[in-house]
Amino acid sequence: MYNLLNGLSVIEASSFVASPTAGLYMAQMGAEVIRVDQIGGGPDFRRWPVTEANDSLYWENLNRAKKSVALDLGSPAGRELLQELVRKTGQFVTNFPAEGFLSHAKLSEGRADLVTVRVMGWADGSPALDYTVNNSVGYPMMTGAGPEPVNHVLPAWDLLSGAYAAFAMLAAIQHRTVSGKGSEVRIPLSDVAIGTVANLGGIAEVLYTGENRPRLGNAVYGLFGRDFVTADGVRTMIVVVTPRQWANLVAALKLEAAVASIEAARGVNFAKDDGLRFNHRDALFPLFEAAIAARPHTDLAAAFDAGGIVHSAYRTMKDAAADPALVANNPVFGHALNPSGFDYPAAGSFATVPQMERQAPQPAPVNGGNSEEVLAERLGLSSGQIAALIDAGTVRQA
After folding, report:
1. Do 248 and 377 belong to one domain?
2. Quick one: pLDDT at residue 365?
3. For this structure, is 158 an active site residue?
4. How far apart are alpha carbons 396 and 367 in whole angstroms?
5. What SS3 string covers the chain?
6. Is the peptide bond before 49 cis (omega within 30 degrees of 0)?
7. 345 and 297 share a domain?
8. How many domains does the chain have?
9. Statement to judge: residues 14 and 148 lie in one domain
10. Which CATH number fits the domain that encloses residue 21?
11. Are residues 276 and 338 in the same domain?
12. Considering 289, 314, 339, which residue would you say is the last residue of a domain?
């Protein structure tokens, strides 16, 4: 937690990963992010993983450092309260549909400088999930050895869209500061996905070659990189990205003569050309497989570290959680009084600001935990008015 965005307030109405991630990142940088939730929680409020008490650890961590107002969004009164909160605050992030009671046109009535950031599935407003967008851009047909498509489990497009949405919010606020004008910024997962494919050269590649990239399993496209198994059965990934790393890897494995023999036979020089190492992997990989299979992992890891060679053994997420460098001794992590009651390391801001003191991660709110506070401060409602809304079932205070 840092106070870089201190003074910025954002209303959030969202569920699942992408839109809540935008709010999370802004909250971790000091913004006041006020979630407006359905009474009892939205569609992701119990999403797995959950505790024995059915508290979602997923929801708890995507919504840290936020506040929660619980409204009956199925009622006209509840919807009007949300609309008024958005207008009073001036900044809104959501993944609700572009049309309807949370359309930018409707919300900006009476608040022309409103900034709305809307995360979407497809650009035409039709629904999509990370997993279906990923299929549509072709990555599962490149992952694994084939021939079947392989879905990866990381919701990459959700996370990229959420980060882009947080950036878009700040960009739109800057535009308003200069011009005085509000705006709606729409961020479809499909556009983030296909745009990223293009930014990485993928669109240009297939149009230039007329072919799909071949399936490479765990090999890295265009580089010398692959998984290898050590003498004691440890599977480790090795990737070479600089001439120095290549020279040091060859030396560490004592393969100078063998590599030179391949170079002479094929009329190439691997010293500075990533592409040549990749193209001649049929000859190089067997050499490295044998050399790595002859030595234990600890011995190789020490040699690789000394040579600045990029490598990492494969391990489980449970192993990673127990790694002191990654978690226990990492200042990104701290502890908070979680609504679930389960105490575990909680992530704060991924960024480090050396000139500022890092604050501890904050807990997620309980559903409706800030209803009275926010309605009083933002809308100027009296305690009697709020009590009447609670009695009517329009508002819930935890």
Report:
1. no
2. 97
3. yes
4. 8
5. CCCCCCCCEEEEECCCCHHHHHHHHHHHCCCEEEEEEECCCCCCCCCCCECCCCCEHHHHHHCCCCEEEEECCCCHHHHHHHHHHHHHHCEEEECCCCCCCCCHHHHCCCCCCCEEEEEECCCCCCCCCHHHHHHHHCHHHCCECCCCCCCCCCCHHHHHHHHHHHHHHHHHHHHHHHHCCCEEEEEEHHHHHHHHHHHCCHHHHHHHHCCCCCCCECCCCCCEEEEEECCCCCEEEEEECCHHHHHHHHHHCCCHHHHHHHHHHHCCCCCCCHHHHHHCHHHHHHHHHHHHHCCCHHHHHHHHHHCCCEEEECCCHHHHHCCCCCCCCCCCEECCCCCCCCCCCEECCCCCCCCCCCCCCCCCCCCCCCHHHHHHHHHCCCHHHHHHHHHCCCEECC
6. yes
7. no
8. 2
9. yes
10. 3.40.50.10540
11. no
12. 314
Of 37, 130, 158, 274, the active-site residue reads: 158
- CATH number of the domain enclosing 245: 3.30.1540.10
Which two three-digit tokens encode residue 280? 């001649």
Output the tens digit of pLDDT for each of the chain's 398 residues: 899 999 999 999 999 999 999 999 999 999 999 999 999 999 999 999 999 999 999 999 999 999 999 999 999 999 999 999 999 999 999 999 999 999 999 999 999 999 999 999 999 999 999 999 999 999 999 999 999 999 989 999 999 999 999 999 999 999 999 999 999 999 999 999 999 999 999 999 999 999 999 999 999 999 999 999 999 999 999 999 999 999 999 999 999 999 999 999 999 999 999 999 999 999 999 999 999 999 999 999 999 999 999 999 999 999 999 999 999 999 999 999 999 999 999 999 999 999 999 999 999 999 999 999 999 999 999 999 999 999 999 999 98
Residues 99 and 190 in one domain: yes
